[in-house]
Amino acid sequence: MNELNNTPACQSLCESNPNRTTEINDTPFGHSRRTALKGIAAALATIGASSMATAAQAASKSYNVCKTTDVPVGSAKMFAINGQPVAITQPKKGTFKAFSGWCTHQQSPLAFGVGPIQTSGANMVCPQHGATFSTTSGAATGGPARGSLTKYAVKVSGTQLSITV
Ligand code: FES
């Protein structure tokens, strides 16, 4: 599992606001955590513990992610929340959207670390095989992916942007 960079800036941010999400620089997202969680959920369902699997999947939490100016109009940017990739977009001025950063084709991240996600028009482009997803809805719009990205609720309070995952 990937770990966050514990830079002095990161530690300062985290200590001043433990709910703030830390950005990862030049650290690729791994699959081990996601694969492990899927395996656990599948195992629970297999042994008839579907209510436990549902409860585990239903747990959600709100995170302060960034300032609204961190995601310019028309762009998409990857953040790490608990080691998981989350894509945030601003398809129109003042309208922010958040999605799981895992491509629905083969579960690769839409960017290899925190930072800009490649876009083409109003779509995010997966760097693996070129699937495209709407920056507004998360729907698959091209390439080998067929499923939409999972959406997350976004809240803007002043200039602070938070999401619930
Ligand atoms: S993993 Fe994204 S297009 Fe294949």
In the predicted model, the low-confidence regions spanning at least 5 consecutive residues are: 1-27, 32-53
Mean pLDDT score, rounded?
77
What fold name goes in the CATH topology slot? Rieske Iron-sulfur Protein
Helix content: 10-25%
Report the total helices. Answer: 3
The neighbouring-strand order within the major sheet is 1-11-10-4-3-2-5
Which CATH C-level class is it?
A: Mainly Beta
Distinct ligands, ions and cofactors found in the model: FE2/S2 (inorganic) cluster
Content-based structural category: alpha+beta
User: Cα-atom Rg, whole angstroms?
Assistant: 16 Å
Main β-sheet: number of strands, strand sense, barrel status? 7 strands, antiparallel
Describe the global form: globular
- This entry's quaternary arrangement is single chain
Proportion of strand residues: 25-35%
CATH architecture: 3-layer Sandwich
The total beta strand count reads 11
What order do the helices and strands follow? HHHEEEEEEEEEEE
Instruction: Tell me the CATH superfamily.
Output: Rieske [2Fe-2S] iron-sulphur domain
In total, how many domains does the architecture comprise? 1
